[in-house]
């Protein structure tokens, strides 16, 4: 385990008895992309997942976890969530809604519990990386543990 200070996401995993590792990397404020994070960690970008926060017309705020090398299919997600349409929230809403800032938004430990969806390719891996709750920190854990701790639904991100 890293010497980094515990984040809210890490405390929640500890309390639940879920095993995980952390990986830290140098980040650059001008490039907070998940692809850059995967590259800096020497990780397969298919196994590093980013957290997106969206708003559905009916559903309201929802969270989507997809590989960093993919883009979200808004129509596909809307259909899966049984909503007419979904869109990304404005960046200025991220911190007030989740408690996390851009480049460090973890699906674990948000201010409120939102409907959460994870792309099905996560199940191809024994472990995947997600944001640890601050910039430059990834939590590496089983996708099954993420699904369990966040009550996540699995979806296909149809392109």
Description of the structure:
This protein is α/β, with parallel strands linked by helices and 159 residues long. The chain has a single domain (8-155), classed as Alpha-Beta Complex (YbaK protein), CATH 3.90.960. It is 25% helix and 25% strand. It contains five helices and eight strands. The strands form two sheets. Strands 4-2-3-5-8 form a five-stranded mixed β-sheet. It is globular. The N and C termini lie far apart (36 Å). The model has no long low-confidence stretch (mean pLDDT 91).
Topology:
Blueprint: H1 8-16, E1 21-24, H2 34-41, E2 49-56, E3 60-67, H3 74-80, E4 86-88, H4 91-98, E5 116-119, E6 128-131, E7 137-141, H5 143-150, E8 153-155
Parallel strand pairs: 3-5, 5-8
Antiparallel strand pairs: 1-7, 2-3, 2-4, 6-7
The CATH topology turns out to be YbaK protein
Q: So what's the oligomer here?
A: single chain
Order of helices and strands: HEHEEHEHEEEHE
| CATH architecture term | Alpha-Beta Complex
Unreliable segments of 5+ consecutive residues: none
Can you tell me the overall shape?
A: globular
What is the C-level CATH assignment? Alpha Beta
Secondary structural class? alpha/beta
What does the average pLDDT come to?
91
Helix content: 25-40%
Domain tally: 1
Major β-sheet strand ordering: 4-2-3-5-8
Taking the alpha carbons of the first and last residues, their distance comes to 36 Å
Q: If you compute it from the alpha carbons, what radius of gyration comes out, rounded to the nearest whole angstrom?
A: 15 Å
Compute the number of helices.
5
* Count of β-strands: 8
Largest sheet: 5 strands, mixed
Beta fraction of the residues? 15-25%
Q: Give the CATH H-level superfamily.
A: YbaK/aminoacyl-tRNA synthetase-associated domain
